[in-house]
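On clarity, I found the account of how folds are encoded harder to follow than it need be. What matters is that the chain and its backbone geometry are given together, residue for residue. The format is easy to grasp once an entry is in front of the reader. For illustration, here is how one protein appears when written out as sequence plus structure tokens.
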Amino acid sequence: MNITIDISQLYDYPGTPVIDVRSPAEYSIGHIPGAINLPLFDDDERAKVGTRFNHGGQDAGFLLGLEIVGPKMASFVKRIKGLFPAHSPLIFYCWRGGMRSNAMAWLFDQAGHPVYLIKGGYKAFRSYIRVNTINNRQFRIVGGMTGSGKTEILCYLKQMGEQVIDLEGLARHKGSVFGHLGQLEQPSNEEFENNLWEEIRVFNPRRPIYIEDESRSIGKVSLPEPLYQTMQHSTMYLVKVNLKVRIGRLKAEYGGFSSEELMDAMSKLMKYMGGDICQEAIKAVTDHNLDLAIEKVLSYYDKKYNQALQRYPLWQIVPVISDNGDCERGAKRIIQLSKISHEANLSGL
């Protein structure tokens, strides 16, 4: 017997395997975090069935689907039995909770598994997270100019028991033209949003979530618009670090990459920095004077960041002075300032 569940009930079944029966291409673009892919059709088969539906009608497409799936049914059951104990409950979904997930649900019901079907499928999941990612969440922004150690501060905040999301880690990009260096290929925008939701959903909504100040885009992925707008109205802890410390941190972070990689990334700034300054920075790289190259690039990034700060009202920015760049101390100071602000708000109620 198959039971249909609403997407909001998905997390009422912890530990129950979630099975995505869409094609591998659909799955790779985005899927419910933790779901395994057991495709009813591979990419070519899906295209063929779709073409038959479009040109021959529903019955013709259905018959072709049966011809393709019939010989594979035993292999589907064998694969699941190789992954999970016999008669384990299973949750299935496809794009809209239609024919593909229903077919798999019937098969595994016959094989003795309690089966749950997600109403509306993956499309319902996407709609659900768009509404709920920001719902009743409190965000605290860790800001600061490039090289201020914001990511390290977030790591310390997490070690200290705070709720933290590393947006750049999820995006697999550090946000600048150099941000792709040393990183894996970025996820699709869908997958980035799905993984962001997976982290946010387990957090206590009564406690703040600390995230790094970001623009709308991190490399090729973009923040969900509701999150970006919420960030603009959240308290920012602006970390202020000595320029020399920032240069040293960036040198340690990027100094291991080849001159060619650095110059290729730097060339993308040519039209923004101005040709002369960019050429000076590139020459500094070729002369192995990385300190000077970083200083030239920071002159551009600092100017842009100061302009970006204008979107925040003064009352919303809380300075965190950290001249020596001690990120652990910076994290402790942010927690202290956050508590002071919270207590002040309570006393004003």
In short: The domain at 2-130 is CATH 3.40.250.10 (Oxidized Rhodanese; domain 1). The chain has a mean pLDDT of 92.
